[in-house]
């Protein structure tokens, strides 16, 4: 990702309006607090502790997301040819291959579970699918980038 942060093409510093910074922080606080409150409400034991913990641990990624949406459009100038970069092509190929691998693995696992009659929890299953997808794409990207660079 080649992006020029905080300066425009003339080298002058770019800043977002002050309300964008405030909205980014406020929206992250509200979203993290809402998720924490929902967790506290749904949890039978230690609801408050769970809610506070979830709120604290989801605040940084939510702040990054709200910063990306509300502030970066004012401070970051996108690279005009970013979609044409070789790294983007490698990522597209890794994502495409990763999707095929995950779909195949899920089909095989579904067949095995249906034939064997083994019960697997939804949490374990979804965790395995997400981890498989992430690891698969990272490995594919590294292999493609090393092979072609």
Automatic annotation (TrEMBL):
Superkingdom, taxonomy of origin: Bacteria
Protein name: DUF3180 family protein
Keyword annotations of the record: Membrane, Transmembrane, Transmembrane helix
UniProt source species: Georgenia deserti
Claim: Membrane is one of the keywords in the record: yes
Transmembrane regions listed in the UniProt entry: 21-42, 48-70, 90-114, 120-143
